[in-house]
Amino acid sequence: MDKILFVTGKKAFEVLSQQTNKLEADNIEFEVQKLPIDVAAFTTPNHIKRIIDQNRYSWIVVSGLSPHDYSELQNVVKGPKNAYDITEINYKQISKLSPKKPADEVIEIGYIDQETINQFFQNPKPQLQIRDLQIGKNTKTKIITEIVDATNKKPSELRKKAKQHIENGADIIDIGVHHNAKPQDIKKTINTIQDIAPVSLDTMNPEHIETGIEQDIDLILSVNEKLINKLGNKLKNQNLVVLGDPNNPEKIHQNIKKTKNLGANPIADPILSPPLQGLTNSLKRYIQFREKDQKTPLLMGIGNITELIDTDSHSINALMASIAIELDVNLLLTTEESPKTQGSTSELKTATTMSILAKIRGTTPKNLGAHLIKHKEKTYKEFKPPKAKKIIKTTQNKKTNKNIENCKGCYQIGVNRKNNTIYATYYNCKTKKPTKTLIGKNSDTIINKIIETQNPTKHHTAYLSKELHKAETALKTNKNYIQDTPLYK
What we know:
Layout: E1 2-8, H1 13-20, E2 28-34, H2 45-51, E3 59-62, E4 76-78, H3 103-106, H4 114-120, E5 125-130, E6 133-137, E7 142-147, H5 155-167, E8 172-176, H6 183-193, E9 199-202, H7 206-214, E10 219-223, H8 225-231, E11 239-243, H9 251-261, E12 265-269, H10 279-292, E13 299-301, H11 303-306, H12 313-326, E14 331-335, H13 344-361, E15 410-416, E16 421-427, E17 434-440, H14 443-454, H15 458-477
Parallel strand pairs: 1-2, 1-3, 3-4, 7-8, 7-14, 8-9, 9-10, 10-11, 11-12, 13-14
Antiparallel strand pairs: 5-6, 15-16, 16-17
């Protein structure tokens, strides 16, 4: 049995002991030792040599905050910077940790059991294939991301968006067709992104669908009874989504049978209704469909929920993905049309990972390594600084605009969401005209350049630092950045 020792100081000993008690790993025993120092970051290689019997342990883990290099010692590595995070590491792979760098910089804190997921899908039973994507029973849930009005976009913009969605976890790119689009627009749009990923076509226009078929579209999204009858044999060998009829739940089974008789490969979409517009009844249709048909792949349009409720998308995506996995839904359709749904593709990717792991383990989707907690915390990992004898209580000062008070010049700060950058434009105090703009992705680099080139007053520096950091946070959280206005009200 392997033995892993965590060494720490007096300050973090209690927290580290509590966290160590939560660790579970086959054939690994964990211990904690308190060194005669206050802060774990002060642990030196000499402490390890003098105090610890290294032969007793397979591995020794020191604080990730330590500045020292432990390479001269055998099997001594750095853990995470925060003692609370020791539960987020896979200790069967402890050899990946470094004697020089904290665990946070070497591995991703928050262990996801990818091996278990891969084993779970070792024996897929696909009903159809979209290029190399297997769709059906015992296959990973696929994500389709729609680019709204894709037929109206410039090729360069379209390709950029498609690549971003694939990088963020999409498996298929859906072409949203503008109502004024012509067949040549469909052809051009498909050809623009077809080399990037599998492509689906979102239109109910039969002429557009025929154009898509001629261009070897990977998936037709979607067809109803009228379209099936009109297109007939042209649907042979096509992957397509058959829409349900909310007023007649049996109709979808009849239409699936029709498409199979035509030689098509159907996917069912009983249609997910928006909140307070029939959502619960639509979920019932999914349940009833799966009870009657366990084989035909299912699609769920989660964008119908995220776009039609005024709340942050990540929690909605987490909940809807867990419902989808419980119902054996095989494809999830989303969109990132509005600012509040930006990032839905990556959110669904994480959400499906959480839900699949929970399903495999027979647990709820928590404590899995992956999570979608963005604006709150599951647990607080804060360490309070010691209180000095001298206490100074601060009060709110009268507000002054420190941006212009010293009149060396002032800055207007903003964000560019297309390039994910912050910009700060300098105005000359006398002429009131902009003379230069600093651009960067990191607030620190911009304020450092301002200090280096202009030597602002301490008040102006504090003000600019606060505003630039706020702009950086706004980019990360998709909040509006408005200078001199709080992000959260």
